[in-house]
Design goal:
The longest helix has 17 residues. The protein folds into 3 domains: 162 residues, 3-Layer(aba) Sandwich (D-Maltodextrin-Binding Protein, domain 2); 114 residues, Dipeptide-binding Protein, domain 1; 216 residues, Dipeptide-binding Protein, Domain 3 (Dipeptide-binding Protein, domain 3), CATH 3.10.105.10. By secondary structure, the protein is an alpha+beta fold. Helix 8 packs antiparallel against helix 10, helix 14 packs antiparallel against helix 15 and helix 15 packs antiparallel against helix 16. The strands form 5 sheets. It has a 7-stranded mixed β-sheet. It has a 6-stranded mixed β-sheet with strand order 14-18-13-17-15-16. A 4-stranded antiparallel β-sheet has the order 4-5-7-6, with helices on one face.
Length: 532
């Protein structure tokens, strides 16, 4: 019996037992919790995670050195404390003693150094955060519980970015490595982490059917300890249809569903006895990425025309049903947001003026079909696409609205040739800094991810975002980020639509949910309790 077959059999047995009542206290006194989402991407490798679902998989099975706190500096986590050298080049962290990996071995500084070198060599996920900042070998093991990062140049957001750095078990991965491209490290354990974890987090990966189900089990020796009513088993389910998700929540077949439904969907759920809809301001940008390298969006005048043709008021009030119109790329709630940027509004006369300035004639433009792509199952994104199509028809531009599963959209982002003209993207802060919405979206070093599907190419912005990263004075750094925000809005690099309200729905017996201001950290199930 091979490993995948054993996993399938085990998963089937788990669901047979759990399907009767998802979060009821079992006969053995254990609590099982079921979370459901329509996004199918999964990842248990902290060198590769990038979107919300992948990040939540990682956050529940691994630990970072520091942990995000909404509106504040990150708090210490695996690290007890740290200090920075006067030149801003060396960050020395002192680790907690006695933190165990899931196989029972102790987490040490050697694992931290290995984890950073592994990220930098694999060059996926969030590794580009430290591109030019760290290279393999720059992370020093001082002693078992002290590790020093020797930066190649000052990097002001370094502590903030470490909320996306997680520590893996070196011995376990090297024991399970396969042949690969990394010399003595083989494949660095990448194959193993397709359906296993190598973390120290609150949960272990028990069973996996990629793109369909995951079973997480409580790690009894988790260093933070456990309290009554915390969750023992998490069942992560992928349900492609929103209507099915809602029905399952109403019936109590699942305990929580994701944030990707329409506002009306959550308004309807809020009326159901036993269902809670949590609403909170969000550090999120809803943006329609415009592919700056694909005709006719390679012309700034066409992008400006589109920016003036779009009906933001209808989008915010009638489709998002709350939140605020975006003021550039950085969400209003993130420190360093610049309110003094170009904020476009619907003005068809201006839109037509810019079209006339375009290098493309109106006749040429009318012959083109521009593709808008949204995530399969997202009714909100579909409605935004229909609004865009209707608005641009008034300019004589043709828009085709298409859907694709999220994994396919991420694949499309790899090259400008495969990236659609327009892509609907929710970009939640990946770390608590305006760098998350400037460098990540508009520096060419970040090209190739869904965050940078505009393929914006501006050497001035590249230099400014790099300069901001080495500016240690906060006020001066925010001023530079402010300049970047002004430039990209003046260039209409993307269609900055909204800072929407965050909504998520769960059963009333679920307690402890809190919006944490950084991508997917609110889906750390350790923070929840079940109180019936």
């Amino acid at each position: 019996m091979n490993r995948r077959f054993r996993s399938l059999v085990k998963l089937g047995l788990v669901f047979l037992l759990i399907g009767v009542a998802s979060s009821l206290l079992g006969a053995n006194g254990k609590i099982t919790f079921t979370y459901a989402t329509f996004q199918e991407t999964m990842c248990f490798d902290p060198a590769k995670h990038i979107d919300e679902t992948q990040s939540a998989n990682v956050f529940n099975t691994y630990d970072p050195l520091v942990y995000p706190v909404l509106g504040k500096a990150p708090q210490m986590w695996l690290a007890k404390s740290y200090e920075v050298s006067q030149d801003g080049l060396t960050y020395t962290f002192h680790l907690r003693h006695g933190v165990k990996f899931h196989d029972g071995t102790e987490l040490t500084a050697e694992d931290v150094a290995f984890s950073m070198d592994r990220m930098l060599r694999i060059k996926q996920g969030f590794s580009w955060l430290w591109s030019g900042i760290l290279q393999p070998g720059d992370t020093e093991v001082v002693d078992d519980y002290t590790v020093a990062f020797h930066l190649r140049k000052p990097f002001a957001p370094f502590i903030a970015t470490l909320v996306q750095f997680f520590v893996v078990n070196k011995k376990l991965l090297m024991k399970n490595k396969k042949p690969g491209n990394f010399g003595e490290y083989g494949d660095y354990g990448q194959g193993y982490l397709e359906d296993h974890d190598a973390g120290s987090g609150p949960y272990t990966v028990s069973s996996v059917v990629l793109g369909d189900h995951i079973v997480f089990q409580k790690f009894k020796d988790y260093w933070r300890g456990w309290k009554p009513n915390q969750i023992d088993t998490v069942i992560w389910r992928v349900i492609p249809e929103r209507a099915t998700l809602d029905t399952m929540l109403k019936k109590g077949d699942v305990d929580m569903i994701d944030q990707w439904g329409t506002p009306q969907e959550y308004n309807d759920l809020a009326k159901v006895p036993g269902v809670v809809v949590d609403k909170a301001p969000n550090v999120q940008l809803f943006v329609i990425q415009m592919n700056n390298k694909k005709k006719p969006l390679d012309d700034v005048n066409v992008r400006k025309a589109i920016s003036y043709a779009f009906d933001y008021k209808t989008a915010v009030e009638d489709i998002f049903m709350g939140g605020k119109q975006a003021e550039g790329p950085v969400p209003i709630l993130i420190p360093g947001h610049n309110p003094n940027v170009v904020v476009y509004h619907r003005d068809l006369n201006k839109a037509r003026e810019y079209l006339k300035k375009s290098k493309y004639s109106l006749k040429e433009l009318k012959k083109m079909t521009l593709t808008y792509t949204y995530v399969t199952g997202s009714e909100l994104e579909r409605k935004i696409g229909l609004l865009l199509m209707s608005d641009l028809q008034e300019l004589g531009l043709n828009v085709k609205v298409e859907k694709a599963v999220w994994g396919t959209i991420c694949d499309m982002a790899a090259k400008p040739e495969t990236t659609p003209h327009f892509t609907a993207i929710f970009h939640t802060a990946k770390y608590p800094s305006p760098d998350s919405h400037t460098y990540l979206m508009f520096n060419r070093n970040a090209w190739g991810t869904y965050i940078s599907m505009s393929w914006y190419d501006n050497p001035v912005v590249d230099k400014l975002t790099e300069k901001a990263r080495v500016t240690l004075d906060t006020e001066k750094r925010y001023k530079i980020y402010g300049e970047v925000q002004k430039i990209v809005t003046e260039d209409a690099a993307a269609l900055f639509v909204a800072n929407p309200t965050h909504r998520i729905a769960y059963r009333s017996y679920v307690k402890g949910y809190k919006m944490r201001g950084v991508l997917a950290y609110d889906l750390t199930f350790y923070n929840l309790t079940i109180e019936k």
